Fold this protein.
Amino acid sequence: MCSAKGCRTPAVWVLAWNNPKLHTPERRKTWLACDEHREHLSSFLGVRGFLKEVVTLAEWEGRSASDG
């Protein structure tokens, strides 16, 4: 599901981020986004300097499968 407040739409995007004051540089937290909310959530993280990467959910899941 999309991480936007109140949205129940299936996620298509993964927004990988970290807060450098709290997390080590390699640590990645994730928010999920639908097409409609991808830009809004990316902007929210981006203006704070937290956004590290935006990839499709399928690509993100493919990375996880290849890691294990």
Observations:
- Residues 57-67 form the longest helix (11 residues).
- The two ends are 24 Å apart (CA to CA).
- Strands lie at 13-17, 29-33, 51-56.
